[in-house]
Amino acid sequence: MKKIIRLTQKLVSIPSWVDATNNENEINNFIYEYLIKNSNLKIEKQILKNGRFNILASNSSKIDRLIIGHTDTVPVAKDWTQDPFKPIIKDGYLYGRGSTDMKGGLASMMLVATNNNLPLNTAFLFYVDEEYSFLGLKKFIQKYQNKLSPKVIISLDGSELEIANGCRGLIEIEVEIKGISCHAATPQFGKNAINIGYQIYQGLINYLKNYSDPNLGESSINLGMIKGGTAPNVVPGSCYLVFDIRPATTRLKASMVEKEIKRIANLNQGKISRLVTNFDFGNWITPKTDLNFGLPFKDISQSGYIDIALLWEAFNKPICFTFGAGTQFMAHKADEYIDISKLNKLDKLLFDLIQKV
Question: What pTM was estimated for this model as a whole?
C-alpha cells in the first residue's frame, strides 16, 4: 500500500469537524509532529483563539509558491452506513469523513513537504475553519498580507485531477421580516410575513439573472433557511430567511442585494426588522493561458466558493488554481469516499506542478 493511502487513512481517522467539543487541534498536532520529524522545513504555528492554530512550513523566509489545504471537515450526519472515522478500502475507493474534502489533499501536501528537492521559496499552509467562517485564512492574511508576495498559490481542495482556474463568490444574507398576525380565516386583516419572504426570494431569482459571466456562468441563489409561523390557523407575523448567493461577477455586491431586498419588501408592504450580511466574498479567476501544465481544466461555470479567492485578493491577484484527487460529488455527503486510482497519483503530480510554476 502506498504511503499516501496510509497517510490519508490516518488523517481520516482523526475527527476534525468544529463544534463546542471538537476542532482541528488533534489533526493539526499530528501534521505538525509529522513535518517536524520528516521534513527539513521551518515549521511555524500560528495561534488563533481557543488554542486552534494554522501551520506554515517553508524552506525560505521568502515565499514564491504557496501550497494550501484546510484541516477541518463538516460534521457527520446520521445517514452514514459505516463508521466515518474507521476508513476502509472497498471496490477501489477509500471511505471516511474528509477523504475527498480534503484529507487526501493534505496527505499529498505532507508527503511533498518532505521532499528535499523542493524549489527554494516554497511553503505549505495547513489552516483551520474553511468549512465554517474562514478564520484560518483571515488570520494568515492579517499577519502576512504586507510581508509576503507569493507568485503562485495552489490549493489542494480540488477534484478529479483537474485544474480549476476560478470560482464564483459567496454572499450570505440573513433577513427577518415583520408582518401582522391575525386569524387565518380573515387574512385580509394581517400581513403574511412568510409570503413577503417568498416574494423577496422570487424577486432575487429574477434580479440575479442580470449578473452572469462567460467563464463562471450564472449567479445562483439558495434559500437555505426559513422559519416562521406559529400555527396553520394563524397568519404568520414574522419570518426569518437566510440566502446563500454565488455571484459570478464582481459587478454584484452584497450591498446591491440588500438594496433589492428592501425594494421588494417595500413593494409588498413588508417591514424588515433585521438585515445582516455574513459573507461578501468576490469571485476569482486566473487565465488558462497562465496554467499550461498539460492537465485538464475543470468546468467552473457552476462552481462553489473556494477560499483561495481570499488570498488572490489579499496578495494582489497572483496565479491561483486548485488541484486535487477528490471525488467532487461526494464532498460533505454520507459515506464520503475518494478514488484510490486518482489519490495514488496526487503527490507525484503535485511535486511536478511545484517544479513547473
Answer: 0.90
Task: Work out whether strand 234-235 and strand 166-167 pair parallel, antiparallel, or are unpaired.
Answer: unpaired
Residue 19: active-site member: no
Among 260, 281, 302, residue at a domain's last position: 281
Q: Cβ contacts of residue 216 below 8 Å, gap of 6+?
A: 166, 167, 168, 248, 249, 283, 285, 300, 301, 303
What's the domain count of the chain?
2
Residue at which a domain ends, from 281, 307, 336 = 281
Classified as helix, coil or strand, 33 is helix
Beta bridge partners of 337: 95
- 100 and 145 belong to one structural domain: yes
The question of whether 72 is a catalytic residue gets the answer yes
Check 24, 101, 130, 213 and give the catalytic one.
130
Instruction: Tell how far CA 267 is from the center of its chain.
Output: 35
Amino acid at 272: I
Which among 72, 157, 258, 347 is annotated as catalytic?
Answer: 72
The reply to whether 247 and 117 lie within a common domain is: no
Q: Are residues 9 and 138 in the same domain?
A: yes
Residue 86 sits in which domain range?
Answer: 3-167+283-356
| Same-domain pairing of 17 and 128 | yes
Q: pLDDT of 51-100, one tens digit each?
A: 999 999 999 999 999 999 999 999 998 999 999 999 999 999 999 999 99
Residues 301-351 pLDDT 10s:
888 899 999 999 999 999 999 999 999 999 999 999 999 999 999 999 999
